[in-house]
TrEMBL record:
Organismal lineage: Bacteria, Pseudomonadati, Bacteroidota, Sphingobacteriia, Sphingobacteriales
GO molecular function, one term: ATP binding
Organism: Pedobacter frigidisoli
Gene: mutL
Protein name from the UniProt record: DNA mismatch repair protein MutL
Superkingdom of the source species: Bacteria
Annotated function: This protein is involved in the repair of mismatches in DNA. It is required for dam-dependent methyl-directed DNA mismatch repair. May act as a 'molecular matchmaker', a protein that promotes the formation of a stable complex between two or more DNA-binding proteins in an ATP-dependent manner without itself being part of a final effector complex.
InterPro entries recorded: DNA_mismatch_repair_MutL (IPR020667), DNA_mismatch_S5_2-like (IPR013507), HATPase_C_sf (IPR036890), MutL/Mlh/PMS (IPR002099), MutL/Mlh/Pms-like (IPR038973), MutL_C (IPR014790), MutL_C_dimsub (IPR042120), MutL_C_regsub (IPR042121)
Keyword DNA damage attributed: yes
NCBIfam families on file: mutl
MutL C-terminal dimerisation domain boundaries: 426-569
Amino acid sequence: MTDIIHLLPDAVANQIAAGEVVQRPASAVKELLENSIDAGADKIQLVIKDAGKALIQIIDNGCGMSVTDARMCFERHATSKVKKAEDLFAIRTMGFRGEAMASIAAISQVEMKTRRHEDEIGSCITIEGAQVTSQEPVATTAGTQIAIKNLFFNTPARRNFLKSNPVEMRHIIDEFTRIALAHPTVFFSLHHDGTEIFNLPKGNLKQRIVHIFGNNYNERLVPVEEETTIINLKGYIGKPAFAKKTRGEQFFFVNNRFIKDPYLNHAVSSAFDDLLPDDSYPLYVLFIEIDPAKIDVNVHPTKTEIKYLDEKSIYAILKSAVKRSIGRYNISPTLDFDQETGFSNMITQKAVEDIVPPSINFNPDFNPFASDSSSTSGYSTSPRNYEAKPSAKNWGSLYEITEQPIVEQTSFYADEPILETKQKQYMQLHNRYIVSQIKSGMMVIDQQMAHERILYERFLVHLDDRKGASQQSLFPQTITLNANDFELAKSLLDDIKSLGFDVREFGKNTLVVEGVPVDLGSSNINETLIFEQLIEGFKNSQQELKLSKRDSLARSLAKNSAIKAGTALGQEEMNTLIDELFACKTPNFSVSGKPIIQTITLAELDKKFEKA
């Protein structure tokens, strides 16, 4: 039998490698931006067309390359950053494997122009599917310009797996944001289909965070800084009041490299214990500086995972530093009342001699069961006296139940008729639950979850028929989102309008809301807050539950618009709520799958009173 093992052709090997290195357009953006940083550039421009499927172009003013280096950079395992195995444990550059350029060239059409600052003429090289088609001298600016066209043109199966343009563009913005945050002293810009998304001037870290996420973040940031023999830590955390329902604004950088580390994330989250609910996540942008010999960055193709020699110590330092910042900047409540100034304006200064202690007068002959109307009250407080006129025959009236005619109505429980009055009398318990008497005992309904279910099914209908009614705002509200949320909002605009929002684009990263759904009611509506919660809730549903776009939108708006626990309801409001709940397709369960209705039988009550 002949030998069957053979070496793969370079073109095939490069395509296999590209499957790990370049998973989508955002992967190519990440690799090219990191190369520009490693080249010492302080000005980097990124141009995107068709969410990176048609064009990804990087223009930088870095060191540039010679004619030979321009050709060599597209060879597999060709790199200027590692020369021997020991160098892998002293890495401070972003790239080091020498795979990215070869992988990109294997699955796209590439044109690169580059010139060193000391040279008068540069070099232009074009490659298609790993094959060099031309290389010639060219007049160009110092630095490097790389244009990647028709990504995955020769691997159509991979191209078919790409998501819609808005989704791919959000991934690109994520990668761009991480690189830009890590290098605030570098100018960055991003254009997509002729529209400027980012223009980030050089500055410090706080300025860069504000430029990326918006001016309102200026007041949300709390600095963190710690220097130890193990690590140096610096960066910012967000105040607990501004925590969100998604993890999108959490960034760890180790030696300026963005990483994903659940263990270190837990250290930060535990520092916020008792300050945040379980489903909220704080903002943080934290930089760890550590000796490269004490970490291994070569453990994952995307280089976003790192192994540490002493991760327990790093965990402890990180948690302690964040806790110290929370306390130092008074963003957690203090128990030291000597330092508390919140009560100072509530205390009236008086001279000691002017203070008169309160006194209590009582009648020792007072009988609460006496029927004599001339009886005096039992207690009085100075300076006013309050008289009570108890009557022995009236005390029991507090517990009398009004007799009303009973009618029988079929329940949503198959064999459980509901006994209720003609006027459907319900009782509200602690402004949280609605209680009603039924034949076998009592029924308790969670008012918030019931309203969520009603709104959820109503919004689904609006998304289907595209006829959500809108109530116009007296004063339209302008909403400025960060670039990622703006791209998300644009992709959802048609569905958002179907729900009843009257909204349109208004310049860079800005929307104008001129109306909101009628279903939200008309009192005390904050259009900006409702819209931001809609986007945030949508992202949370997509992240955690992997729901469809339609379901996520309806769920998000319903949860954020429903009446909350603690809201007092009138009898008519309770009647309407219960009627609309029973008209739902799924009245028994909430949007989250939890029970809306609980029944307590007479037998269960008897057992509580030890009658069983």
